[in-house]
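Why do we care about 3D structure at all? Because function follows from shape, and shape follows, mostly, from sequence. That is the central idea of this module. The next example makes it concrete: a single protein chain, its amino acid sequence, and then its structure expressed as C-alpha cells.
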Amino acid sequence: MRASPVQHSSFAIDFQRRRLLIALGSTGVISMLGGCATSSSSGDARGLARATAVNHLSYAVTDYARTRDFYVDLLGMQVAWDNGKMCAVEFGDPARPEGIYIVPVKPGEKSAVSHIGYSIDNFSGNKEKIAAALTRQKIKFKTDTEWGWTLDDRAGYMIHFISETGIFPGASDPCAIIASDKCKGAEAIGLKNLASLPKPGAGGFKATAFSHIVLCVDDIVKTRDWYEQMFSMQPFYFKGAEPNAQAMLRFGNNTLYLRNIKRPGGKPYVDHFAFEIENYDQDRVEAELKRRGYKPVPDSKLGWTIQDPEGMRIEIAGRGLPEYVGEKCAGRATDCPGGPRG
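And the structure:
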C-alpha cells in the first residue's frame, strides 16, 4: 500500500513517515536530451525515465481473500491495505516495498495480471518532461492519481508509470487530488481492519523482491528496445529463435522476461512471476513446498515452480536466478548443467 497521507493508526503513520522520507530523498533530476535522459541519482538512466522496481502487479482473481492469505502465509507478505473487496500485500524493502494488488476479476473473465506498475525515479519532479516526450512520440497516456500514469506498452499491455511513493488499489477515482478528503477517506477504509487480518505463518518463506516477471508479447526485439528506451532497463540476455526465445532486462532488483505469445488471439499477457526469497536453500524449499501439499517442479538450482490458488504459475527463487539461467542454462532450466535442478 503506497497511498496518500492518512493518520488513522500507527500503521498508517509509519507509512506516511516512510513516504515523506522517500519524497525528501528523491533528488535525481532528469534532463531531456533529444528524447534521451541522464540522472544525477544512482543508476544508469539512458532512457526516458528510470524504473527502479516493480511497484505492483494488479492481479484479478476469483477469491481475493483466499489469494491474499496464500501470499501472506507462504511468502511472508504483509497486508498493507484491505477494504473487504480488494487488498494490497507488500514485501521487500520497507522503505520501497514491492507489492501485489489483489482485486476481483470482472464477470466472465479468468484470473490474470491486468497490469504492471513500474516505480519511476523522481516521478513527481520529472513528469512534465516525460509527458512532453511521450506526447512528441504520440504515446497516449492518462492520469491515474497525481502520482501515476496509465498507458499501453508497444505490445499493447497495460502498464503504469508510478511514483515510488505509490498509491493503493482503486485509488484512481478518489485520488485525483491526493490531499483531498475523498482520497483520505478511501484510504482509511482499507487501513482500519489491518490488525485483524492474517499474518505470515510459521515455516513459510520471506519474499524480498520479484525475481522476474514473464510478459508474452508479439515482438520480443521491438518490445525489448521499447522498455530499454522508456525505462532504462538493461538487457543482459537475448535468444531470437524458439525454443524459448526471449529477452531478459534488468532494473533494480527485478528482471522482466519477454517471450513470444503462445496463446490464440495475439494479446499480450503475463505468463508467470517469481519471488526471490531470503536465505534460499534448494532442498529446504522443496521440502517445505511438499509438506504443504504442492508438487514443486525445478527451475534450475535456484527455483521451484508451483501454482497459486488461482492456478497461476509462480516460482520461489534464490538470488541471481535470471542471470544464472541466462548465463549457464541457455535461457531455460532444461538446459542447466545437470538438468532442470542443476
